[in-house]
Specification:
The complex is a heterodimer of chains A (127) and B (893). Chain A is built from 5 helices and 5 strands; from the N terminus they run βαβαβαβαβα. Chain A has 127 residues and is an alpha/beta fold. Chain A has a single domain, classed as Response regulator (Rossmann fold), CATH 3.40.50.2300. A 5-stranded parallel sheet of chain A has the order 2-1-3-4-5, sandwiched between helices. Chain B has 893 residues and is mainly alpha-helical. Chain B has a 5-stranded mixed sheet. In chain B, strand 8 and strand 9 form a beta hairpin. Classes of the chains: A alpha/beta (127), B mainly alpha (893). At the A-B interface, helix 1 of A face helix 30 of B.
């Protein structure tokens, strides 16, 4: 059964790149580029995993993450955060907010695929 | 039989030995090795000058004549030492803190530094001591005679006088050599004190030796001696209670007042603590001195032929029994007693005479011009030496005139009563603040007069007072008979004189003190004396000795500055009418000085400082000067305090602002770096992702390949542009930009900018007024064009409208050229208007693709060009105004 990935990102070229590599890896990819409506989109689409940018128009990725973690439906939702702000404090902020995995841009495509796979089936995955 | 020559040789040897002792002690003290010189034992032994030849020889005589009465002269001092040592301690403390040099100085200093009082006491002391010195000369002369013609007084008057003269000359020389070697302010004579201590040992040893010989050698033991005493006249002796009490009181008073006793007790004292030892050791010494007096007297009365002088039993008994060695030792004991008394008395008296009589006269005669120069010291030394010679000479003169006929003990008591007159003024002065100069002077003169009239003159013998006065009274008034004043008859003459002189002395002292009002300086000194233990923190050495006014002057200079202080002191000196530049430290002057100083250092400090210099000196002058220096600095600081505090608060505000600015800058820098990181990483992310896709993915269509390669290409260009902008901004912000000034028309610059910005389509319509653009500019046309391009590109990117339109209007101000760019979009929100010129401040989303540095760069450029760029509120769409100086040449630097 095909798993759903929701990519919340505002940079069109990056959306296109992530959509391309994950589609090729067999994921059903949906995208969203507005921070304000991101949470309701997640609730509506019910993805298996979310890829979240930090600097989004209207609302920051950290706020979206916190709101998702406060909701029972998305408390345990695997969320991979991608950010161009790679400082240590950004990582700490994300971890406090409850991120599942954190990656800085630019990323390696293979690593993104690997991370998304690990997030969706962490237990069944062989070590 | 020992010859007189041999005795003289022994005597001279002994004197040489004393010289050596004094010399060594003096040298040790000079080299600072003062511990053995200043031992408590030495102090105690030096007090033994109380035991003069009168005590050495006379006590036995007294015992032979009056039984145990001789004990009173030991009892008085013992009681003072044991029971009144706290009085002595107070005297010693006052002596130190006030730098007292003699008993006259003490009384004078206490009563407002009155020189009249000092002269009175000095005269009294000289008159009272002269017979005493004569007594010593007489005893030495008599003892020589004993050896010359044992048992028989020499009939040759000239020979006797001759001996006395040589003794007097020798003593004067010794005293001059060791008493005036140098003129220390402290007036201490370590050599003399040490020699006296040695003599004290010699006389005690001599008397003890004679006593032991008498008790065990002649009487056969203690029991036999006691039996002999019981069977003698002394055994039947009845105590006269009044005389006993009177004599005890008298000797106690004399112990405190005698100039030589004051010299060793107070002036020569190194350490208050020595009194503790002396308080038991000295009574012990006196007890040992008195132990064998009665046995010697009793045995002497038995042994010697009737009519023998009992005063000489100490010598004649050993001689009569063939104990020549013991006799010589005894002679040396008597010689020691006499010489030590004369030496110390001469030093004490010469200090008084030179300080209170000679020096004031000399200063008056010379006009005081030398009062600060060095030759004063030599004058003082000379005065002191002459005074010593004079005092000893007077003693010799008295001896010659009186012929040495009177019994030794009587002379001693006469002297005692005379000096006791100082006691009321002295004790009253240190315990009663109400005592005044008038009271002291009145009491002293009253007691002195009665003493002279009732005791001294009669004691000289017939001739001093006419017989008529003695029997009929002065002016024939019976109640003025010298030995029966106010009709009191039948009293012992000594007791009579003591009673009347002391009673009237005390009454006059008290009444006059109560009736008179003390001067301020007297009150000041009185407080210092009475409360000496409150004023002085602890025992202090005598070191120091700078005049008070000089200390005050130095202190004032340090506080007020030299010119002002000198002016103040000179003014005061003129007002007081003193000679020389320094005024007397009168209470008035001290008060005004205090007031002036308090203007600089505050009232309390000024009071304490003046009080310390004038008062107890519990703080050293050096300490005070340190305080003064600090105070002066404090003054300087406080004078500048206001300006400084203003400066400080201004500096603090500036620092606070700078800090805030730095914090803001730091935050801005962090934000800027984060922004740059983000702006660089975003295109790099696309580039990496698509290049990996192109590299790794198989089966890409040709269209996909071209599309992804194009994205990589575009992002690379975006990256380059971003780096260019950053560099540009950095250069502009650092002011390193080089302006390329050229002439050109505004319209042409706008044409180029519109063409560059609107590259790739005509989506934005630009409305211009060509006529108004015919303005000649002299500026960096490329930079200005960069600003225009940015504004037009922004309009193209951000103007959200069906028919986007940008209107460029040129208006003239007096010295500025306005170029307004207004589009028909939605405009910029009020909050955003403030930040659009900041770096990376993109208002909406990043669709426009700019890095957000355009307006920041534009603002920098316009600032460099001497103009500016602002957002124009009040328009429907976005509106920017570029301002350019009319004459750029003026603004371009």
């Amino acid at each position: 059964m095909q798993k759903h990935v929701l990519v919340i990102e505002d940079e069109p070229n990056i959306i296109e790149a992530i959509s391309f590599i994950l589609s090729r890896d067999g994921w059903s990819v949906r995208t969203h580029s507005n921070g304000v409506t991101a949470v309701e989109t997640v609730l509506a689409r019910k993805p298996d995993v979310v890829i979240l940018d930090v600097m989004l128009p209207g609302k920051s990725g950290y706020d979206i993450l916190r709101e998702l973690r406060d909701l029972p439906e998305t408390r345990d939702l695997p969320i991979l955060m991608l950010t161009a702000r790679g400082q240590t404090k950004d990582r700490e902020l994300a971890e406090r907010a409850g991120v599942s995995h954190f990656m800085t841009k630019p990323f390696s495509n293979a690593e993104v695929i690997e991370a998304v796979r690990a997030l969706v089936a962490p237990v069944s995955d062989p070590p | 039989m020992i010859t007189l020559n041999a005795l003289i040789a022994v005597c001279l040897t002994y004197v040489v030995f004393l010289f050596a002792v004094a010399f060594v002690a003096e040298r040790s003290a000079l080299r600072g090795r003062v511990r053995w010189v200043r031992a408590p034992l030495v102090y105690t032994l030096s007090l033994s000058i109380y035991c003069t030849a009168w005590t050495f020889y006379g006590a036995v005589g007294s015992a032979a004549r009056s039984g145990f009465e001789y004990l009173t002269i030991y009892l008085g001092p013992s009681l003072v030492m044991i029971g009144w040592w706290w009085v002595l301690r107070k005297l010693v403390r006052i002596g130190r803190s006030q730098r007292i040099t003699s008993v006259a100085d003490l009384v004078s200093s206490r009563y407002g530094k009155s020189n009249l009082l000092a002269i009175c006491v000095t005269i009294l002391a000289v008159i009272g001591t002269t017979p005493y010195i004569a007594l010593q000369l007489q005893s030495v002369t008599l003892s020589f005679e004993v050896f010359a013609q044992p048992g028989v007084p020499s009939p040759e008057e000239g020979q006797r006088s001759y001996t006395a003269l040589w003794v007097a000359v020798g003593l004067a020389i010794f005293t001059v050599i060791f008493g005036t070697r140098n003129l220390d302010a402290n007036e201490r004579h370590h050599g003399v004190v040490m020699a006296i201590a040695v003599e004290a040992v010699v006389k005690l040893a001599a008397l003890m030796a004679v006593g032991i010989f008498v008790v065990w050698g002649l009487s056969g033991g203690v029991a036999e001696t006691l039996a002999r005493i019981d069977s003698s006249e002394l055994g039947q002796w009845q105590m006269d209670g009044g005389r006993w009490a009177g004599l005890t009181l008298l000797s106690a008073a004399a112990f405190l007042c005698l100039p030589r006793m004051f010299q060793v007790l107070v002036v020569e004292s190194d350490d208050e603590g020595h009194l503790r030892t002396a308080s038991w050791a000295f009574p012990l010494y006196l007890m040992m001195m008195s132990l064998f007096v009665v046995p010697i007297a009793v045995v002497g009365l038995d042994l010697m032929p009737p009519g023998s002088n009992p005063d000489l039993f100490v010598l004649t008994v050993p001689l009569a029994t063939g104990q020549e060695g013991l006799a010589v030792l005894s002679f040396l004991g008597g010689f020691s007693s006499a010489t030590s008394m004369v030496i110390v008395a001469a030093i004490a008296l010469s200090t008084m005479v030179s300080n209170h009589i000679v020096m004031p006269i000399w200063l008056r005669l010379t006009g005081g011009g030398a009062s600060v120069s060095g030759d004063v010291r030599s004058v003082v030394l000379l005065a002191r030496r002459l005074s010593i010679a004079g005092v000893v000479g007077l003693g010799y003169l008295y001896y010659s005139l009186s012929g040495g006929g009177t019994a030794l003990a009587t002379i001693g008591f006469v002297s005692f009563v005379g000096m006791a007159q100082v006691l009321p003024a002295m004790l009253g002065g240190i315990f009663w603040r109400g005592a005044t100069r008038t009271g002291a002077l009145g009491g002293l003169i009253t007691g002195f007069t009665i003493w002279i009239y009732a005791l001294f003159l009669p004691s000289i013998g017939s001739g001093a007072l006419p017989d008529a006065v003695m029997t009929e009274g002065l002016f024939g008034l019976a109640w003025l008979r010298p030995q029966a004043l106010f009709g009191i008859v039948g009293l012992d003459p000594l007791l009579h004189a003591l009673l009347w002189s002391m009673t009237l002395n005390v009454i006059t002292f008290v009444v006059f003190s109560l009736a008179s009002f003390p001067s301020p300086l007297e009150r000041l000194q009185g407080a210092q004396f009475v409360n000496v233990f409150d004023h002085s923190g602890g025992p202090r050495s005598w070191a120091g000795g700078v005049a008070q006014t000089e200390d005050l002057m130095i202190m004032a200079q340090r506080i007020l500055g030299a010119p002002e202080a000198q002016a103040l002191f000179e003014r005061e000196a003129r007002r007081q009418g003193t000679r020389g530049p320094l005024p007397d430290p009168t209470p008035d002057f001290l008060e005004s000085l205090e007031r002036v100083l308090s203007g600089s250092v505050g009232a309390a400090t000024a009071h304490a400082m003046v009080g310390q210099i004038v008062g107890g000196m519990s703080v050293s002058v050096e300490d005070l000067m340190a305080v003064a220096d600090e105070s002066a600095q404090l003054m300087e600081y406080s004078a500048r305090l206001e300006t400084q505090s203003n400066e400080l608060s201004r500096t603090a505000r500036q620092l606070r602002e700078a800090n805030q600015k730095l914090t803001r800058l730091s935050v801005q820098k962090d934000a800027f770096l984060t922004q740059i990181s983000h702006e660089l990483r975003t295109p790099m992310t696309s580039i990496r992702a698509f290049s990996e896709i192109l590299r790794d993915s198989t089966g890409l269509t040709a269209g996909e390949q071209i599309k992804y390669a194009s994205i990589i290409h575009d992002e690379a260009i975006r990256l380059t542009r971003l780096l260019d902008d950053l560099l540009d901004l950095s250069v502009l912000e650092n002011g390193q930009v080089h302006l390329n000034l050229r002439q050109g028309k505004l319209g042409e610059v706008l044409d180029r900018a519109a063409a560059a910005a609107n590259d790739g389509g005509l989506s934005l319509r630009i409305r211009r007024d060509a006529r108004r653009e015919q303005v000649m500019l002299n500026t960096d046309l490329d930079r200005l064009s960069q600003v225009f391009i940015n504004l037009i590109a922004n309009a193209r990117k951000y103007c959200i409208s069906d028919q986007p339109e940008l209107s460029i209007q040129v208006t003239d101000d007096s010295d500025l050229l306005f170029i307004d760019f207004v589009d028909n979009g939605e405009g910029v929100s009020a909050e955003a208007q403030d930040m659009i010129f900041e770096k990376f401040a993109r208002v909406s989303d990043s669709q426009a693709g700019g890095a957000g540095l355009g307006l920041a760069i534009s603002r920098q450029i316009m600032t460099r060009l001497g103009g500016g760029i602002v957002y124009l509120p009040g328009h429907k769409g976005a509106a920017f105004r570029v301002m350019l100086p009319r004459n750029y040449a003026m603004a371009a630097q």
